[in-house]
Amino acid sequence: MQSKDNTIKTIELLAPAKNLACGIAAIDHGADAVYIGASKFGARQSAGNSVEDIATLCEYAHRFGAKVHVTMNTIIYDNEMDDMLQLVRELEKAKVDALLIQDMGLLKACKEYLKTNLSLHASTQCDSRTAEKVRWLASLGFERVVLARELSVQEIANIHTAVPEVELEAFVHGALCVSYSGICYASQYCFERSANRGACAQFCRMAFDLKDSDGKVIEHQRYLLSLKDMSQIDNLGTLMRSGACAFKIEGRLKDINYVKNVVSAYNQKLNAIIAKHPNEFRRASFGRVECNFTPDLNKTFNRGYTSYFADGRQQGIFSPNTPKALGEYVGKVKEIRRDSFNVSSTASFANGDGLCFINKQINREGRTIEALEGFRVNKAVGNRLYPYKMPQGLKAGMGLYRNQDQAFEKELAGQSAVRLLPIEMEFGLTFDGYFLAIRLSGVGVPKVETKATIQFEHQEAKKPQRENIVRQLTKLGNTIYICEHVDVADNADQFFIPSSVLAELRRSAIESFALQPLLVEETKPQQVYDLKNKKASAFEYINPSQYKRFPYLYNVSNRVAQAFYEQQGANVKTAFECMDTNPTHDNPLIMQCRHCIRYSLGYCVVHGGKKPTWKEPLYLELGDKKRFRLEFDCKDCQMNIYAE
């Protein structure tokens, strides 16, 4: 988002909201925008919200110039289209700011049938990895494209350079899907639960055996597709200069304390960067956040953190020992007694803390397996901890992690932050009374101003009234405003005015000011892409051989989407989820990943790894003996997974 003077770039911190309470907390802790699911059609089935709650969130967010995006990023079935269109109408009345869309049938319906003025964002399920794909999506009417999580900072910069008119949104924090979003069918194939319908069964968090084509077991019961969680907080400055304008925190299923902590951490980091470069960046919303706790990302649910592909391919992006939250490292087990142990640590502990450790064991086949074991602290006396039940696998010297910190949770309970809008006041005389003007305070803020008047005779005071005038006008109580300056003009402090009259004037002015929209002044560059009158094949923008072989990758689940792609010149077939049975052709592609098991295990010769001794192809095998063939596409540096 480019500001009006074309020099200062507007930055948006976008936070998840499981529900209304989480959405309000996100705004209070510094989010510039919130994304939330409606009652249907969001990619998290268990995170739905009523239109009434969304309208309430919009009203609250808009007071600070913040926005509300609604996720409608599932694929839509024909019998749902009318309900979907009605929901869009209701959301527009609720004054939401944007819709996140995957289904091109929904896009076509919004543009041609509803003619909605809502901003449309191409969801990450659209699998946008290239400038060509982003350009194509922009030509269809998307104002913003949510990029694939797998892109590097340089790849984001290259896309921005190629299509500078398009807003680019990048994920910066939270859980990672191992497959490119939108082209993962593993959950549907194995459990008839569609990720593209918001019902992912988390296939990638399961334990697998890795076998070669001779049946040799290379890895036994390890979480080879389970990635660590993303954290780009140390890369924000670079990302801000890459061309991305919106930075998205994952977590629409996370609780309110996750939202408070993570949003606060990123809000403070962004503000620190902008304070150093005020002529380069600005925030997309307004207000000053005051937290009463110190954010700490290590104290929030995480599987260990990775910057993923921000700087290119790197080791250590997956968590093969456990798909669960490891938490923060708090020290080593020092000495164990029958019912307690102590920890060599500078950390402080509390009753009820959740702790865990990685337990290595030898299985029946003589293989070393690692498992995460957790327990709860019943009583903490300094560094001596008394568990509810002593974990059998705990040994002296083991590293200990805390995945639930009771003291920190208590800090986050209740009101942990206040967001206030700084304002300035001008008080002066009118012909028959007084006026009070209110405007936003600060550099680069919108020129929003209101003026209220009140009739009251001018009675000369025995002594100047300035002190009482300022005191009464700045009593803003439970409002979201804080007054930084009062200008008393026209010698108005020389006249007597009762405190009750000042209070009435203040109330009237504040109520009027609260109705004014607070929006960043932006110029929307005219998009130069025009493909409407062309039969531009979708193959021009995405991998043609892959989509020809597996046409279900278009995710076409309704007649409107079918017509859309036919108009684009693409020969498409029904979505994976709409087939009567699983695909009739052999070995359907069910995942495509940038994560590469061969690389992560140290056997990618292209990147200097050891030469494998196994016989390929390799297979992942679940406990129920379902097998999945791995294909290492070194040309595109990615891993494809096929069902057997």
Automatic annotation (TrEMBL):
<dbReference type="InterPro" id="IPR020988">
    <property type="entry name" value="Pept_U32_collagenase"/>
</dbReference>
<protein>
    <submittedName>
        <fullName>U32 family peptidase</fullName>
    </submittedName>
</protein>
<dbReference type="Pfam" id="PF01136">
    <property type="entry name" value="Peptidase_U32"/>
</dbReference>
<feature type="domain" description="Peptidase U32 collagenase">
    <location>
        <begin position="400"/>
        <end position="513"/>
    </location>
</feature>
<dbReference type="Pfam" id="PF12392">
    <property type="entry name" value="DUF3656"/>
</dbReference>
<dbReference type="InterPro" id="IPR001539">
    <property type="entry name" value="Peptidase_U32"/>
</dbReference>
<dbReference type="InterPro" id="IPR051454">
    <property type="entry name" value="RNA/ubiquinone_mod_enzymes"/>
</dbReference>
